[in-house]
Design brief:
It is built from three helices and five strands. It is an alpha+beta fold. It has a five-stranded antiparallel beta sheet, with helices on one face. Strand 2 and strand 3 form a beta hairpin. The longest helix is centred in the first third of the chain and has 10 residues.
Amino acid sequence: KDSEAANIFVHAEIFSGATMEFISALESLGRICDMAPGLWLLRTEHSAGVVRNTLSQTLERGDRFVVIDATRDRLAWFNLGPETDVRISHVWNAAIAMREQAPAR
């Protein structure tokens, strides 16, 4: 466990029918709030990596999810595919391109 509690968003697409097992594993990690279908807020002391590893044990091929640690600025995911892995790494923590500002009128 990490030393402080964190707010973590979990978004999942579960096609295998393992939703109840997934939610049970999520509840074992801390307090949860169901925000929308497939979207939860988790209050936990665990890292995004621990959350990912715990939840991934409940799912099957074709299921996927993303873990966003809003407190510690971390991202973890499961089963999104190699192309998405590459796209995420090009954006997460990338420098923001400065855009030219339109002249004031």
